[in-house]
Amino acid sequence: MIIALLSDVHGNIEALNACLKHAAENGAERYAFLGDLVGYGANPDEVVAAVARCADLGAIAVKGNHDEAIEKRAAYMNDATKESIEWTRGVLTAKCRAFLSALPMLVRDGAMCFVHASAASPARWDYVDTPEAARRSVEAAQTTYTFSGHVHDQMLYFEGAQGKWSAFKPTPGSPVPIRGHRRWLALVGSVGQPRDGQPAAAYTLFDPAREQIAFQRLAYDHIAAAEKIRQAGLPEAHAYRVEKGV
Amino acid sequence: MLDPIAPGAVVDGYRVGERIHTGAQSQIFRVSEPVREFPIIMKVPRIGPQEPDENLISFETEALILPALSGPHVPRFVAAGDLSRVPYLVAEWVGGESLESMLRRGTFSPAEVTRIGAAIADAVHDLHLQDAIHLDLKPDNIIVKPDGAVVLIDFGLAHHERYPDLLAEEKRFAAGSAPYVSPEQVLGTRSDPRSDIFALGVVLYEMATGRLPFGTPRTMAGLRDRLWLDPVPPRVRAPEVSRWLQEIILRCLEPGADDRYQSAAHLAFDLRSPEHVSLTGRGHKARQAGLLGQMRRWWRARGMQLQANAKPRSRAAEAAPVIMVAVDTTHPDDARQPALQRATARVLSLSADFRLICVSVIGGGPGAGGTGDGASGAHLDHLVLLRHWVEPLRLSPRRLSLHVIESPRPEGALLEFARRNNVDLILIGAPSPTQHALAWWRSVASGVTAKAHCSVYAVRIPEPERGSERDDDFT
Fold this sequence. Notes:
The complex is a heterodimer.
Chain A: E1 2-6, H1 13-25, E2 28-33, H2 44-56, E3 60-61, H3 65-69, H4 79-91, H5 94-101, E4 106-109, E5 112-115, H6 131-141, E6 145-148, E7 154-159, E8 165-168, E9 176-177, E10 184-188, E11 201-207, E12 212-218, H7 222-231, H8 236-244
Parallel strand pairs in A: 1-2, 2-3, 5-6, 6-10
Antiparallel strand pairs in A: 1-11, 4-5, 7-8, 7-10, 9-12, 11-12
Chain B: E1 10-11, E2 14-22, E3 26-32, E4 40-45, H1 53-65, E5 77-80, E6 89-92, E7 97-98, H2 99-103, H3 110-129, E8 132-133, E9 142-144, E10 150-152, E11 159-160, H4 183-186, H5 194-209, H6 220-224, H7 234-237, H8 243-252, H9 264-272, H10 281-284, H11 291-301, H12 304-310, H13 316-319, E12 322-326, H14 336-348, E13 355-362, H15 377-390, E14 400-406, H16 410-420, E15 425-429, H17 439-451, E16 455-459
Parallel strand pairs in B: 12-13, 12-15, 13-14, 15-16
Antiparallel strand pairs in B: 1-2, 2-3, 3-4, 4-6, 5-6, 7-9, 8-11, 9-10
Helix pairs in contact in B: 3-5, 3-9, 5-8, 16-17
């Protein structure tokens, strides 16, 4: 059963809809949302409602730092980010706020672990951006496959024979076999706010039966999504990021 | 681990036959199955508590990369057994003789070195075009088929751009085979296709001289010698080797990857077109560098450690394209010519390391002049016209070659020439529909565009809209 892994949607309903449609067309039957459904984007309520519907049908969803910031002030965030969190808190319905508040920090399912940041300390929101950080997260997860977001880029970390970890930058659309006798950590990319210079939405498909992962990039109407951020009166930086993918 | 795979056993539907190879890392059996139109073999890694880890990793690497490869220069992948259950790999059995076994009969004549060498370079180029690097090229892994084509085998140390490199951290053994491994591999870089060019240079050297340019070092320090050691020029060991062949071999063996051929296609081209090889000091070299020269090379090599890691690059083929421009020298004054020149200049400006092949086909169309006889005067005339055509581009002779082909079928001749020389892009002037006098060339251009194995840039002069005007006054 193919699993679609979606992270860092950040209130971008255009990007989320494009990814969900693409995933369904490509055989996805399960969904896992790896946190940060809200923040930055103009449609947090629509995004949370859509994910809540998926969760009702069995989708996995874990909490991200932006989701947490809705109910718990985050001193570490910069002013523009705080501004968008304040705004988001105002537009979210009570039902959506309750959904975010109830999200677990980490979910294990058989050989898989789903967590927004590092499984080593999920609530500290440490970035998994080095092979060593990947190793620490996987040691804590104690699963063959660990799937995370938080870092908005797509990356595949894997364990070598001597226990040394390596990083691999995947080519979107090109499936990679990830056999279960090693341990792997995949950063699935950001649906709603990619930062690698390309505005295309990012998500990932994992096929556990074939032990194969396929990172995806998808064109969607990012200009419209950016424009909505401006219309909502949110900081220009957030609109610019979505528009340029930076 | 138990050994379930032995002659007579049936594994996942494959009947195991005779064992045809026993190596340190794996065993190979002939196998059969009811429906299979080509002969197949089963490769079984030696895995177990007594066996080194690298057997498993290199098996895993081959099982990852071989299924992603295709074409005439690699064995066809059939199936892979589950690594956690019965690891094996089933692939096409390639008929032919390994270069290793051919070498045991003695050295090759220079003509054989260039013929077989060009076929190996074709195979390596094809692999590079598929985003893969072999990284363990050596005579055992090169199979020469009865028709002269080459198939590369054993991808246990290979690297593929689109897959994780499982060997990246396994530095102890991932360096490849001691006599053939490139300097940058010795330093730990596994993503440079030009490493294969170096290994191929060692193979060419061995074929031509019967000796190995850097011996068979057994220590890391010995391996590092190739970072600076100036090999004995092939002509010292085998005087029948021509200067141009020595030039080619020594260029492959340059310690700095930037100084080698940047693409196996360029190497294949030079091996097939000795008249276009421009000689440098390498070709004329009559002895190994002296003490002072070797010291200079050694000093330079000290900086290589950083350099090798600074510029990993695959996709050499894209960075160093072979570009062919088809010039209609039978109409030297046609308005297409300057347009084609401008288009060529634009295309060349996009890559730092291109090879330009200018071709004119004569003997076909009306007014072609030539009659098809070998070294006709027409042939020379057209060579002069071709040289005149390309002169404004001011290209180094190292990047350029001119060819006049006499053929009654220009379309077929151009296509065949492009394929044989691994051309990446063909530029051709396409007469517009209103150039009636050039209708015949128009059909050549459209035929080439339709049937080429590679990209084609059809250059046409834009025409103003003509409304109801007569449309044949342009001619």
